[in-house]
Sequence to fold (325 residues):
Amino acid sequence: MPTRITTTYCLLLIAALGAFALSLANGSVGLSPGQLWHGLMGEDSLARAVVLELRLPRTLTAFAAGGLLAIAGVLMQVLLRNPLADPFVMGISGGAAVAALSAMLVGLTGLLVDVSATLGALATTLIVFALARGEGGWTPTRLLLTGIVMAAGAGAVVSVLLAMGNDTELRGMLFWLMGDLSTSSNPWPLLVLFAIAVVVLFPLARHLNVLSRGELQAQMLGAPVRAMRIAIFIASSILTAATVTSAGTIGFVGLVTPHLVRLMLGADHRLVLPAAALLGGTLVMIADLCARTLFAPRQLPVGALTAIAGVPLFLILMRRGKTVP
Fold:
């Protein structure tokens, strides 16, 4: 067992480093390994500008965004004990997008857009849980269905906001909604949040293992269920909002990645959380690389590519009965 775990983590790390290197070397202008090295060392001014000023920030943003979405997906699936839960399906991404677009339309920029997206994600989460509460409290199925309805409603509101927007900005807003990393210039806030999420959540993995078996059993074992639920609500909203403001709406990463990791490592969240973060970041880096190179110099929306790859993959996992939390 330890050998399998070590091998899996080594393969994930190699895949992440490989995707990182390919992302830096490839784009509308390809760079040889030598040019890439000289660019990183600052010995070639043109290669340095391409690598350090354009591709490196975008690649780091893609890795952090994918890792955060994967972590949020793990948290949501544990909270709802449902393999279909993730920020995109539950409407959290949609709520953040609505708030961010609304802030843009009234002229807000920068930090105010980030704050708006966070508040939108939190508000959507609260609305979902308020509407899903019935006799006997919440049930995972009722929460999931309510989240799906909220996601559909958020999509409709986004369409209205786009119709109200300036025609000259419409294409950029559409690309941002479908996942756009072309404007990424400062990945460090997202990377810092990614590091904080991994460091803070890893010690809570044991509690997540207990909570995933059911709230009643978790209470019997002395886990702080109520506090954990509130923490998961807030953490999922913040992680999702930060990703939406930095990279747009990228779906299916938080849905598929936890399942793939559980197939490789089992259901122990001490192993699942860091592996999901690593795999999610790798998948989004690969998607962003494909978005930049498949039809270069044209660029595709990253979120569209993750959906194209994620839908059939999830259907295969579901058909094989592997989508269990």
Summary: The chain has one domain: 2-319. DSSP finds 14 helices and no strands in the chain. The two ends are 20 Å apart (CA to CA).
